[in-house]
Amino acid sequence: MKIYDFKVKDIYGKLIPISQYKGKVLLVVNTATECGLTPQYPGLQKLYSDYNSLGFEILDFPSNQFNNQAPGTSEEIHLTCTGRFGITFPQFGKIDVNGVNEDPLYTYLKEQKHGIFGKKIKWNFTKFLINRNGEVVKRYAPTVKPEKIDKDIKKLI
Fold first, then answer.
1. Is the dihedral of CA 67, 72, 73, 74 positive or negative?
2. What is the SS3 assignment for 51?
3. Catalytic residue among 18, 27, 29, 35
């Protein structure tokens, strides 16, 4: 399988094919609105603002698996993120990133790039960088700030 074979649900539950992002550099990140790492949202937005016109997309997947730090519905989370952080990049429906109910996209991503603790996602704001050919080229720990990813994105743009 390739990343473009997957479909994910948007904040309203509509299936969206990842293939619509084919040929773009992607940063896939699981997020939360009430996490100690939530202040990464402005940094993610800056990356998006700087590189979106050059073929870069951020795909944001809220996850409530880590201490219930993404409460509310997908729509409520989206309103919080657009209102509080001014994000304009695509947000999708809440998902599980680990366990029996994990989203197949995350099963795939974790198989492509393992983290320090193996395949398991350690926490919110784990990031996967994908090149224009749909290959997962790097996985970043939750504590890696978006600013530190800038140089890697530039190489792929």
1. negative
2. helix
3. 35
Rounded distance, CA 55 to CA 23, Å? 8
pTM, 2 dp: 0.91
Torsion, CA 50, CA 18, CA 35, CA 125, rounded to 10? -70
3-class SS of residue 59: strand
Annotated active-site residue 35? The verdict is yes
Distances (CA, A) of 61 to 78, 151, 157: 10, 23, 23
39-49 pLDDT per residue, tens: 788 999 999 99
- CATH class assigned to 3-156: alpha beta
Alpha carbons within 13 angstroms on the beta-carbon side of residue 105 total 26
